[in-house]
Amino acid sequence: MADDELGDRDFERFRDLIYKVAGIRIPPTKKVMVANRLRRRLRATGIVSFPAYYAHLTSPAGPAEMPAFLDAITTNETYFYRDAHHYQWLAETFLPEAARRPKARGVPIRIWSAACATGEEPYSIALKVAAGRQALAGRDVSILGTDLSGAALETARIGAFDERAVHLVGPEERNRSFDFDPALRRWTLRPEVRSMVTWRLHNLLKPVDGGPFDCIFIKNVLIYFDADSKQAVVRHLLAALARGGYLVVGPTEGIFSMLGTLTKLKTWLYQKPA
C-alpha cells in the first residue's frame, strides 16, 4: 500500500487512539476526513507514512505531538449567538438573578464555556455581560473558555472573525465592540471585550479547575462521545457546577438521562438544586 493511503487497520488504530485520549468516537464513515487531516501532520513532521506517524504518537516522544494531532482531527466551527435564545436567557434572566444572589465579597459570577472551539461562544457571553453591566450592579463576571485544541484557542485569543461568524451580531453591536478590516473582511473584537475571557486547554474527560461555576455552557460537542465518555464528562460537569447553578446544553448532546438531580427548566436548560 502506498504511503499516502490510510489502510483500514491503521484507520482503526487511529480511531482507538482518539477515543482513548479524548473520548471522541470517530464514525467509520470518516476515513477520508481523517486521512486528509493526518496528512497535514505528516507534512509538518516529515514522517513518511501513517503507520510511522502512529508509531511516533505512541512512542515516548508522542506526548509532544499529541496536541497537534488532536488539533488536526477535531472540528472547530461555530458562530456568534448560535442558539440565540440561550443568550437572551443569559442576558435577561441569568445575569440579573446572579447579581442579586448573596455571594462572598469579591467573588465573581463564574461562567464556563466548555469545548469553546475558536471562541465565538465565550465571546458571545462576554458581549452580553458588557451590555448588561447596569443589571450586574457592580458584580464582576469571570468567563472561562476551554477546548481540547490549542490551535483553536490561539485563534480565539486573537479574536478576529469572518462575516459568517458574526452574521447574527447586529450592526450597532458590531460598531460598538468590533473593529472592521475591509481589506480582509475581518471583524476583530476590541481589547476590552477580549480581556473578559480567560482561555485554557482542557480535556473534557478530566476535571476542570476554577469552579464552582454559576453557569456552564456545553453545546454541540457530546454528540461525538459514546455513552461511557458522556458519563465521565457529565460527572465532571456536575462536580464543577455551583449549587443553584445552570447547565446550558445543545439540542443533540444525548445526556438528558445522565443529569441526576438537576431540574429540567427547558429542553436546553437545567439547574442544580440549591
Gist of the model:
This protein is α/β, with parallel strands linked by helices and 274 residues long. The protein contains eleven helices and ten strands. Helix 2 crosses helix 4 and helix 5 packs across helix 6.
Detailed description of the structure:
- This protein is α/β, with parallel strands linked by helices and 274 residues long.
- The protein folds into two domains: 8-73, Chemotaxis receptor methyltransferase CheR, N-terminal domain (Chemotaxis Receptor Methyltransferase Cher, domain 1, Orthogonal Bundle); 84-271, Rossmann fold (3-Layer(aba) Sandwich).
- It is built from eleven helices and ten strands.
- A seven-stranded mixed sheet has the order 6-2-1-7-8-10-9.
- A hairpin with a 4-residue loop joins strand 4 and strand 5 (186-189).
- The longest helix has 17 residues, at 84-100.
CATH top level of the largest domain is Alpha Beta
Mean pLDDT rating: 92
Say what the CATH topology of the largest domain is: Rossmann fold
Return the CATH architecture of the largest domain. 3-Layer(aba) Sandwich
The sequence of SSEs as H and E is HHHHHEHHEHEHEEHEEHEEE
Radius of gyration: 20 Å
Tag the structure with descriptive keywords.
18% strand; Chemotaxis Receptor Methyltransferase Cher, domain 1; alpha/beta; globular; three-stranded antiparallel β-sheet; 11 helices; Rossmann fold
Write the layout of secondary structure elements.
Blueprint: H1 8-22, H2 31-45, H3 50-57, H4 62-73, H5 84-100, E1 109-114, H6 120-131, H7 133-136, E2 141-147, H8 150-158, E3 160-161, H9 171-177, E4 178-181, E5 186-189, H10 191-194, E6 197-201, E7 213-218, H11 227-240, E8 241-249, E9 263-266, E10 269-271
Parallel strand pairs: 1-2, 1-7, 2-6, 7-8
Antiparallel strand pairs: 3-5, 4-5, 8-10, 9-10
Helix pairs in contact: 2-4, 5-6
